[in-house]
Structure formats: C-alpha cells, structure tokens
Design goal:
It contains 15 helices and eleven strands. The protein is 53% helix and 11% strand.
Length: 353
C-alpha cells in the first residue's frame, strides 16, 4: 500500500454505506451511485435485464460524476493526481478514472479496488504489530493512562492510543457521549494506518487493554505483542482517581437515568442488592461515594485479575506513584515514563520469559 502516498488524493466512488463501513485512510467519499441508486441498479439487473440495469446505471453514474467535477474537483490544478477505487476495481472506478483522464488529470485506478486493499490490511495486521517494542501502561481505572498517552504524544514520544481509535474508554461506562464506535473493519484500518507510520527503532507507548474495547476487538497479533511486552505501572491513590474520574466522566453525572441504565448491565455479576446501592447513590448525587464504591467493588478487582493474567511482565514493571493527577503531575509522569522506557532492555520486549 505504499503507492497510496504517491497520489495527491484518494477518491472512493463506492456508495456512502460502503464508505461508512470502511475506507482507505484520508480518502474522500465521491459516490458515483448513492445507496438507493445502487440498490435500484442491482434490482434492475436481477429482475429486469442486464441491459436495463446498465442503461440506468450509466445515466446515474454520468450525472453523479458531472456533479462531483463541478462541485468538488473544479478547483484542482492541471497536475492533480487522484487515485480512484471502488469495490473491486470495476466499472464504477473505471468510469470516474476515464472521465478524469479525459479532462487531463493524471487519474489512476486502484487495481483490485477496496477488496485488494482490505486483503492487504488484514495480512499486514498479522505481521506489522510484531515489528515494534511496546511499553505498556498499566494502572487501575482512573490512573489517567489516556491523559498520559496524550502527554507522551505531545512530548513527541510514539504512542498508540487504541481507545481513541476505538472511540471508547474500554469499560462498561466507556461509551463516548458524542461519538459512536467505528466498525470493526474501520478500527482495523485505523490501527494499521497508525502502526505503519511509526518508527520500529523507537518504543511505542500503549495502554494495557483487554481483548475488546467496547464492541471492537483488538487485532490478535497486536494484542499478543502487547501482552508479551515490558510494562510500566501507575499506582495513584484512590482519592486522586476518584477526583479524576468525576471530572472525566462528567457526562454521566449529567444523565443519572442513563448512568443507572449502564449500572444495570452489571446486575448478573453483583446482584440486586449491590445494584440498588449504586442506584441509590446516583439518586442522592453522592458522586464521590459512588465512584469509590465502583472502584473498590468492581473496577479494581477486575482490572487486577485481567492484567495479572494477561500481561506476563507486569510483576517486573517499574512503579510510579503520583500523589495527584493534575496536568502538571501528568506532564512529569510522562517524562519519567520516557526515561524508564529508554532504560528498558529493547531486545527482550517481545520475548516471553
């Protein structure tokens, strides 16, 4: 997929639904058939005749290509070099590429289309994650691990923020209020695109994750490499974590009914009495009590079980013990983490003890 960098722009001519499921990173959506038009042409092919389908499709495709040229491509210069793709490198992308080249632009058609691209992404996700030396941040819920990744990235360290890519915080209360999770295919595309831009000679900071982040599954090869890597532990006092979580999850405090609905998802684990206690704390707006109770009763035990089981180097990890989790403290922690990562033995990072 190195050829993607050779073009000024990548043009996806598939339908909006196809584009939403997954697309090449930074591709623009310029459908030559929208979802309804694609369904209509397919229906004609099946129930009328291939001729009727092609005649109707040609009219729709021509009209949509003209609209894109007038509305979107009119400002492109003479030397513009777009790469065009559809589902399998067939008629939709061929039509757009032909028109662009007839105009004088240096358009090219992606051989094999999206299907070929997707096969390559899947294949590379089997090998690419193993090229890097990960430094896995471990710490109980509320230890500001995501903020630490942000601080590390701001300090020009290499970071793989899987929760950001997955649009989820990785817990029963992890849904983001303003963003839905991408599809599994789109998540894998985002992970692949991020990894391929990293430098294998430098460490990559990543947060310890379970197999799933919300509804999405972390690619197997990446998870295996992370679990065999060197760990760095953050141990913050529960008071600091409670304050941090109340600030971080403020959207839940503004929606008590939604919060209680999320807590009900834990009914099978803890029973009616515990859930009733948590719901009562919500009703009384006892946020510090609620968050501390959730940490002690649910999050901390579950996190400890999971990380001890899955991250084989956790017991050997250096430990940082911040007293607070404010911006200055997080910035200082990021510098300490970089120093610890620099001292860690690079060759052993992906070897099981």
């Amino acid at each position: 997929m190195s050829e993607l960098e050779l073009f000024d722009e990548v043009i996806d001519v598939r339908s909006p639904a196809e584009f939403a499921e997954d697309h090449i990173p930074r591709a623009g959506s310029y459908p030559v058939l929208d979802d309804a038009e694609r369904a209509e042409v397919g229906w004609l092919y099946k129930h009328a005749s291939p001729f009727e389908s092609k005649r109707r499709g040609a009219a729709l495709v021509s009209r949509n290509i003209a609209r894109h040229i007038e509305a979107s491509f009119a400002s492109r210069g003479r030397e513009w070099r777009p790469l065009v793709y559809c589902w399998r490198g067939g008629k939709r992308s061929a039509a757009m590429t032909h028109v662009l080249r007839e105009i004088g632009w240096q358009g090219a058609q992606l051989e094999g289309g999206y299907k070929a691209y997707r096969r390559e992404v899947v294949a590379q996700l089997e090998t690419l994650p193993r090229q890097f030396r990960y430094r896995v941040l471990c710490g109980e819920t509320g230890s500001a691990k995501s903020r630490l990744l942000d601080a590390l990235a701001a300090d020009r360290a290499q970071v793989l923020d899987l929760e950001r890519l997955a649009c989820h915080r990785g817990s029963v209360l992890g849904d983001l209020p303003d963003r839905a999770q991408p599809t599994q295919k789109m998540f894998e595309t985002l992970v692949w695109d991020h990894l391929r831009r990293l430098e294998p000679a430098l460490p990559v900071f990543v947060e310890a994750e379970s197999k799933k982040i919300g509804a999405l599954q972390v690619p197997d090869a990446l998870l295996e490499a992370m679990r065999a890597s060197e760990c760095l532990r953050i141990e913050a006092p529960i008071e600091a974590r409670v304050r941090f979580l109340i600030e971080e999850y403020g959207h839940f405090l503004a929606d008590p009914a939604g919060l209680k609905g999320q807590l009900d998802c834990l009914l099978a684990l803890y029973g009616r009495e515990v859930i009733a206690r948590w719901r009562s704390q919500v009703d009384r707006a006892e946020w510090e009590t609620l968050v501390a109770d959730l940490l002690v009763s649910h999050y901390d035990p579950a996190y400890r079980r999971s990380t001890r089981k899955n991250y084989v180097r956790l017991e050997f990890a250096p430990v940082l013990r911040p007293r607070t989790l404010g911006p200055a403290s997080i910035a200082g922690l990021a510098q300490e983490l970089r120093a610890l990562a620099a001292r860690a033995p690079a060759p052993a990072a992906l070897e099981r003890p």
